[in-house]
Amino acid sequence: MSAGEEKTARSETRSMWLLSTPALIILIFAAAGPLLIMLVYSFLTPGKYGNVIWEFSTDAWVSTVLTRDIFDGTLSLADAHLKIFWRSVKLSLITTLFTFLVGFPTAWFIATRGERNRAALLFLITIPFWTNLLIRTFAINQIIRTEGMLNTFLLWLGVIDEPLILLYTDFAVFIGMTYVYLPLMVLPLFAAIDRFDMRLIEAAYDLYASRWQVLRKVILPIVKPGIIAGSILVFIPSLGAYVTPRILGGGRNMMIGNFIEMQFGPGRNWPLGAALSVLLLVIVAAALIVYTRAATKEGPHG
């Protein structure tokens, strides 16, 4: 490379960095900055009325999974914290699985329609995004509450003798999150299925493959990127959900997001809330790494 070409390349690189500067500044102050603050707060001492005392302490991190006896200072597992963690992960995984079971046939049906019908069906899938999450969650609340539409309809049919207690349970949170995040599973699956070559199914049948073998060995491996993308889009927001568990789960069925909010509110333990926030970020990052590695593996068996 000549001196002139090297100078031109250096100039182009400098220009690219200058053009990227506004975006980098936004990322640093709007994303990395708050995360850094949470990380610092997690190693400080809680104040009596909220805020923090600038004294180094690891108690917040210890308190995420352990609790200290107020009399003799011995440590034991924080059962309440672990139950919240387990409930969050369990409901997020179940929501991801169920949205896939519902979203896959839905996406397949849309992808195999004609161009005109396909556009109309995709339009219907995106309609929930037009409404605020809070409004959609309150709508589910009105449907499944004791005097809601579901119980009223079942009582009218004579299927049940008394209203079902659905609200303020894990099942209510699961229903709410499934409804809210289902479109996030359908759209990536549709994008993957839309590129699928249907002649491969005919070829598999010609080779005497059963329907289950066609699904497991032909369709699923090819649309795997859409499955992984949809799982990421559903699992991560489900894990950190706040509004849906707050409205449909009540105070007894909180998830990690609600528990973090409580530490910055009535709990007045900002370092613990910060430690839980960072821990949630680590869990999400670990899930992303697992999903990304699964996406980069080649072949039907990885």
Describe the structure.
With about 300 residues, this protein is mostly helical. It has 13 helices and four strands. The strands form two sheets. The chain has a two-stranded antiparallel ribbon. Strands 3-4 form a two-stranded antiparallel sheet. It is globular, with a radius of gyration of 25 Å. The protein starts with a helix and ends in a 6-residue tail after the last helix. Residues about 300 have low confidence and may be disordered.
Using brief descriptors, characterize the structure shown.
302 residues, mainly alpha, two-stranded antiparallel sheet
State the gist of this model.
With 302 residues, the protein is mainly alpha-helical. 71% of the residues lie in helices and 3% in strands.
Question: Helix and strand layout, with pairings?
Answer:
Layout: H1 3-41, E1 45-46, E2 52-53, H2 59-63, E3 66-68, E4 75-77, H3 79-111, H4 115-126, H5 133-144, H6 149-157, H7 170-194, H8 199-206, H9 211-222, H10 224-239, H11 243-249, H12 256-264, H13 270-296
Antiparallel strand pairs: 1-2, 3-4
Instruction: Please tell me how large the radius of gyration is.
Output: 25 Å
- Strand pairing plus helix content: what structural class? mainly alpha
Uncertain spans, ≥5 residues at pLDDT below 50?
298-302
Taking the alpha carbons of the first and last residues, their distance comes to 42 Å
Q: Tell me the fraction of residues in β-strands, as a range.
A: under 5%
Number of strands: 4
Mean pLDDT over the full residue set: 88
Fraction in helix: over 70%
User: What would the principal axes of the Cα set say about the shape?
Assistant: globular
